[in-house]
Amino acid sequence: MSMASVLAPATLSLARPAARRAAVASAAAAATLRRAGLDAACPSARSLGSASLGAGADPRLAIRVASRCRSESAAGRGARAAATMAKKSVGDLAAADLEGKRVLLRADLNVPLDDSQNIADDTRVRAAIPTIRHLIDKGARVILCSHLGRPKGVTPKFSLAPIVPRLSELLGMQVQKANDVIGPEVEKLVSALPNGSVLLLENVRFYKEEEKNDPEFAKKLASLADLYVNDAFGTAHRAHASTEGVTKFLKPSVAGFLLQKELDYLVGAVSNPKRPFAAIVGGSKVSSKIGVIESLLERCDILLLGGGMIFTFYKAQGLSVGASLVEDDKLKLATSLLAKAKEKGVSLMLPTDVVIADKFAPDASSQVVPASAIPDGWMGLDIGPDSISAFSSALETTQTVIWNGPMGVFEFDKFAVGTEAIAKKLAELSDRGVTTIIGGGDSVAAVEKVGVADCMNHISTGGGASLELLEGKELPGVVALDET
Ligand SMILES: Nc1ncnc2c1ncn2[C@@H]1O[C@H](COP(=O)(O)OP(=O)(O)OP(=O)(O)O)[C@@H](O)[C@H]1O
Ligand SMILES: O=C(O)[C@H](O)COP(=O)(O)O
């Protein structure tokens, strides 16, 4: 345990207003766009990232999902999550099941667009390709469907039209686009769709019935197709018409390769890890990570905490945290999580030093101080060099590492050092055979910013979905699929 001294409790707290969050988010997007020199950072890239996943084939995943489920259930842990796992895959379908068949394929093409409607990060489009290509190669007629953003009714700026050029480029064929999701025009386009081609439907959320999981809407959508493939991992935690409702009207309803790979890693590798197994949890608030921390405490050997949440733990231990982000209503929770780690024999490490700033800004004045010496008015925005070194040494001992949430305000270069060091460490470990999993959200943006995304074994394409899986929750979009 890292914390030694106990000082008088502080009372200041720092909420992160929406505008500030928007500013850091756009800084992150800009940083992603600036990404350069990726491969140099990762000499022996494993090509196992979602972007480079071969059609259904992850050669190192010799153990099938179903068998993982059985061993997990036998161990008496994670039975609920395991129940979501033994799902039929598109790879299990014979050529005759697909040739000439109309396949409704739900993907998550919810990508960030810039002000000129250009794709700012095409990761999710690239991640959707293996399943689409497999279906094309088998002569299926692919009816591709996705949401984009959270539109209220038909909203042109949320059209899926900007996705078509990139999708066509990646597939090496022209993808057609419908201007609607259901209805006679779409039916006409589907009837004329040749074998081995793709029709992209308009944003499924242009219909309010989608998010309401309206059975009539689901039925109409399903009536376009003969069978259903769900590859939208990022939306699998939503029980919507296109992710859950349609499965009641289409048989078979199976998992796509991306969905399968996400489950393999986020449930399979986490519930049955090569040990020692370390979890790194960061991000802004402890309140949004309680479920994940509690769930990981049941499974991991080492838990490293960073990001804004550490100040709630410090304060719970009686330290002054200055103007750092603190959730005063979670102090007891922090104390109980520390106690739980002790009880479970998990080596929980908090940073011993922090980089503090005089304001929340990229050009703030900064200094490194021990975690026990944060002055009034200053806020911790990154982990310090001693912590980086201690965390790196702890990670040296591991065989499996999962990471969710940045170590600091990585959107500001000055406070990105801790996050970048952890990203580089994971890339190095990955190269040595350690299984490295990036559990979605901002940690993905962080490894992309550092240029080591391709080094990791798995980078999740789902933020909310991966968090829910790591919490041990069932995902409705997975539960609804056919069993193996
Ligand atoms: N010390 C800190 N003080 C304030 N904010 C911080 C601090 N450290 C990290 N953050 C912020 O936490 C945010 C990410 O937190 P979040 O909990 O959302 O992580 P995530 O789970 O990776 O992302 P997502 O919510 O997209 O899934 C980043 O924007 C980062 O700037
Ligand atoms: O970006 C995501 O997390 C998914 O596409 C789901 O989007 P939603 O949170 O709007 O349902």
UniProtKB/TrEMBL annotation:
Cofactors, names only: Mg(2+)
One CC-aspect GO term: cytosol
GO biological process: gluconeogenesis; glycolytic process
Catalysed transformations (reactions): (2R)-3-phosphoglycerate + ATP = (2R)-3-phospho-glyceroyl phosphate + ADP
Pfam family, one: PGK
Matching InterPro entries: Phosphoglycerate_kinase, Phosphoglycerate_kinase_CS, Phosphoglycerate_kinase_N, Phosphoglycerate_kinase_sf
Alphabetical UniProt keywords: ATP-binding, Kinase, Magnesium, Nucleotide-binding, Transferase
EC number(s) recorded for this UniProt protein: 2.7.2.3
Keyword Aminoacyl-tRNA synthetase: no
SUPFAM superfamilies noted in UniProt: Phosphoglycerate kinase
Superkingdom per UniProt: Eukaryota
Transmembrane spans: none
Quaternary data: Monomer.
Xref: PANTHER family: PHOSPHOGLYCERATE KINASE (PTHR11406:SF24)
Family from the record: Belongs to the phosphoglycerate kinase family.
The protein's name in its UniProt record: Phosphoglycerate kinase
The species this protein was found in: Paspalum notatum var. saurae
